[in-house]
Write a structure and sequence with these properties.
The complex is a heterodimer of chains A (165) and B (315). Chain A contains four helices and seven strands, in the order H-E-H-E-H-E-H-E-E-E-E. Chain A is α/β, with parallel strands linked by helices and 165 residues long. Chain A has one domain: Rossmann fold (3-Layer(aba) Sandwich). Chain A has a five-stranded parallel beta sheet. A two-stranded antiparallel sheet of chain A has the order 6-7. Chain B is of the alpha/beta class and 315 residues long. Chain B folds into two domains: 139 residues, 3-Layer(aba) Sandwich (Rossmann fold), CATH 3.40.50; 150 residues, Rossmann fold (3-Layer(aba) Sandwich), CATH 3.40.50.1370. Helix content of chain B is 37%, strand content 14%. Chain B is built from eleven helices and nine strands. In chain B, helix 1 packs across helix 11. The two termini of chain B are 20 Å apart. Classes of the chains: A alpha/beta (165), B alpha/beta (315). Chains A and B meet through helix 3 of A and helix 1 and helix 11 of B.
Amino acid sequence: MTPILPDPESLCAELVRQLQPQVTADTALVGIHTGGAWLAERLHSALGIALPLGLLDISFYRDDFDKTGLHPQIKPTQIPFEVNGRHIVLVDDVLYTGRTVRGAMNELFDYGRPASISLAVLIDRGGRQLPVAAQFVGARLEVPPARMLVLERDENGKLRLKLDA
Amino acid sequence: MRNPQLDEKGGLQHLLSIEGLPREMLTHILDTAASFVGVTAREVKKVPLLRGKSVFNLFFEPSTRTRTTFEIAAKRLSADVINLNIAVSSHTKGETLLDTVDNLSAMHADMFVVRHAESGAPHLIASHVASHLHVVNAGDGRHAHPTQGLLDLYTIRHYKKDFNRLSVAIVGDVLHSRVARSLIHALTIMGTPDLRVIGPMTLIPAGAEKLGVKVYYDLEQGLRDVDVVVMLRLQSERMRGALLPSAQEFFKYYGLTPEKLALAKPDAIVMHPGPMNRGVEIDSAVADGSHAVILSQVTFGIAVRMAVMSILAGN
């Protein structure tokens, strides 16, 4: 059975509503490439966050490097603020096994020691393989394990969820 | 016949020579290196990609810069690095090259970085080792120095953005230079339209035109309107017989001075693979001047070697 996919635009608004009360001068957003980066850009401007947006490509921190090798397209990681003492909100499109988040946290700690890290995701599809939980969730969705749920962005910047076989 | 560097899926198994590699593969290496440049600029300069892997630096020929940058690159990928200066160890006791390699493989090596005075030695090792091992050519005889070619390519792309309108001049001792050969292949693959080699007749290999380059025996003619000048080291240790009257005379005709550099484009960059012979192939005023990007080459070289090692280890 194919689940009905929610509209990412309204999930984005929901995340803004959840995050708004938590934002302080020491809050920094870090989006995980690629879908999480698009989402983080949206949240960053909607929340009016003062610190510049951070972007992570976790290719150098993946735990399946021995099986799959290096990702064919790696985007540079950019953390344009001091990590030490900051409250960092990691942003990703879909939370599934939790392995990406683990890689992202390992990478962040190579930049410094944050005061805290929390996690905001558009969709939590369950299926965790690590003890990882998101504090801010747009929607929870049951997705069969064999399917890939991905976020897409069209040329007008509009976000759309897509289920691949 | 399959390129001996590639595995059955077309992935890079060894890096022995740039010749014959597809353009997309070179672009992939350069793009990956760009991400590693960011890593090497931060507080913690290591990533865990090669954790638990052992990289053996096998240097049968002396080298400081190349060995050091390979060592730093492997360490920044979290590999364990073992440096073997074989010129002064078992080799002199009579052990053959492949016996040395077999012994190190039995110590659970994952990657060999090989520098050898004989052209083809890294090929020999690559065709001998088990399929999970990777070999990187760090310079073999006059044949190839692919990571140097790639870091030169990276440096040119960094300053000039793309290759399809560039004029590049490679100057000096082209005959003995594996750096020149690797760079010529790399630039040709990337579609560089104007490639020149400049040097005295005795130091330009016969049939150089077959590589797709224009040959100039006159430095001032050859430098006219180029975007990139690559100076080569005058390799006196490789000289056999009287190819040159003297280093002073070489400088007079082929040394890069500010006056000669002025013939190139105003925004031309000057590269040199090092080590430099000041006053032989390059004037200090140029080596330390605003056009020189020689130290950037060294920094980029680490990121490029990290990219090569991580791509190989992942295949």
